[in-house]
Amino acid sequence: MATAPKTQAATTTVIIQNGPSNALGIASFIFGLISIFFLSMLFSPLSLLLGTIAVIKRQFVWGGIGIVCAFIGLMTSPIFLGILGASAHR
Question: What's the angle, vertex CA 44, arms to CA 37 and CA 82, rounded to 5?
């Protein structure tokens, strides 16, 4: 009785490395941009928080732009200016 020759199956090992992600910085920028136009009291603190975390994780560009947009959103918010009393005219 003849036996079939044994073949060796080739195995391939795939190594997946996750590179650095800019997701926190980009989210900070988007929330900061939204805060300039809508619901500043909600989106500005969120943008500041995400921007700070992004800068800590060395996502300087997107995190910094998000923080700047959050400050612009706060400074143009009528609700925030009303809380500070800066919108009172005499």
Answer: 75
pLDDT block averages, 10 residues each, the chain of length 90 = 69 82 88 87 90 90 91 83 67
> What DSSP character marks residue 14?
-
Instruction: Give the global pTM.
Output: 0.68
CA distance 72 to 43: 12
Distance CA 7, CA 83 (A): 78
Contacts of 24 (CB under 8 A, 6+ apart): 50, 53, 54, 57, 59, 62, 63
